[in-house]
Amino acid sequence: MDNLTKEQRRKNMQAIKSVGSKAEVILAKALFAKGYRYRKNNNSVFGKPDLTFKKIKLAIFVDGEFWHGKDWEIRKNNLKTNQEYWIPKIERNMQRDNEVNLKLSEQGWRILRFWSKEVEKNFDTCISQIEYEINKLKTNK
Predict the structure, then answer these.
(1) What pLDDT tens digit does each residue of the chain (141 aa) get?
(2) CATH number of 19-140
(3) For residue 75, what pLDDT is reported?
(4) What are the phi and psi torsion angles at 64 (to 5°)?
(5) Which end of the chain has less neighbouring CB within 10 Å, N or C?
(6) CB 92: neighbour CB atoms within 10 A?
(7) Is 126 helix (H, G, I), strand (E, B) or coil?
């Protein structure tokens, strides 16, 4: 049973942002400080990646563990309330992520996906991986 009223839960869910998560912001700021220029949440690119480098066709996504189903087979059994809603919702998010990856790959894009906790805990590794891909894609042009 939920320990919040329906109105409290509704307000909590409304406060969740679809863009500008903590992990996304720290990643973007670090790349900008290193001199990399990108577009945030670019509508002109399929799937609206969190960061895009359009000239070299690099799309970066920072996915929340809950919303995008990290360790889903284990975690879906831990949902306490409203499983009829959350299981199909999160599975559809995962399916959409795969569709976006496939379409962008077909269009020649290189896709990097990071879990938000991965960015926070292994920040330097994530930055290094992005810089490696940028350099590799620039030399291939």
Answers:
(1) 567 787 887 777 666 666 668 889 999 999 999 999 999 999 999 999 999 999 999 999 999 898 899 999 888 888 887 888 889 999 999 999 999 999 999 999 999 999 999 999 999 999 999 999 999 999 876
(2) 3.40.960.10
(3) 87
(4) -75, 140
(5) N
(6) 11
(7) helix
Domain ranges within the chain, ordered by starting residue: 19-140
Beta bridge partners, 20, equal: none
CA atoms of 57 and 133, how far apart (whole Å): 10
Q: Name the nearest CA neighbour of 112 among 24, 25, 30, 43.
A: 24
By CB neighbour count within 10 A (0-12 exposed, 13-18 middle, 19+ buried), where does 53 fall?
buried
C-alpha span between 54 and 57 (Å, rounded): 5
pTM: 0.86
At 114, give phi and psi (nearest 5°): -125, 145
Closest CA to 134 of 20, 55, 77: 55
Q: What are the tokens at 21?
A: 């998560």
Angstrom distance (rounded) from CA 21 to CA 112: 17
**Tokens read off for 96:** 């959409």
